[in-house]
Amino acid sequence: MKVDFITLLLTIGTSASVLLNNGNVNSTFNSLGNAREMMQTATARNYQLRATQQAAKNQAAIADERYKNGCLVLLYKGQLVALAQGRPVYDPITKQPLPKGTVVCDGYGTTAILEPRDFDGDGKFQPVITLEAFTGNSQLIKEALEKNRRATYQ
Q1: Is 62 exposed, middle or buried (0-12, 13-18, 19+ CB in 10 A)?
Q2: Which one-letter DSSP state was computed for residue 150?
Q3: What is the pTM of this model?
């Protein structure tokens, strides 16, 4: 009887241990799954950050060239204005849109090319701000602004 009681206790103890450890195993697997998911998320985020950084470098090179080549700095009543994608740019004297292909820039590092689009849905195409590129090169921006201040169309 003592042997049966001891066997019963051992069986119950072993079963309890297995059940408790089974919970730990499940918890361990869940933790590993969570860790794997976190690593995948971090890897995807790092990839996205690197791709974004490379795109920014590529855009900066384009914008730098546009500033170096003499983009038209936009002003309104002598004040700097920011470029707005999809908007037309008008000559302040003639009130006509600037021609397609004109390279424009602002004092904040954004450059763009005017391309024909139907920006207001009237079926008529006119040049609007497209193909933007940004640079943080403050020296180039400053030089463009200084050249522009000497221009007569201010």
Answers
A1: middle
A2: T
A3: 0.68
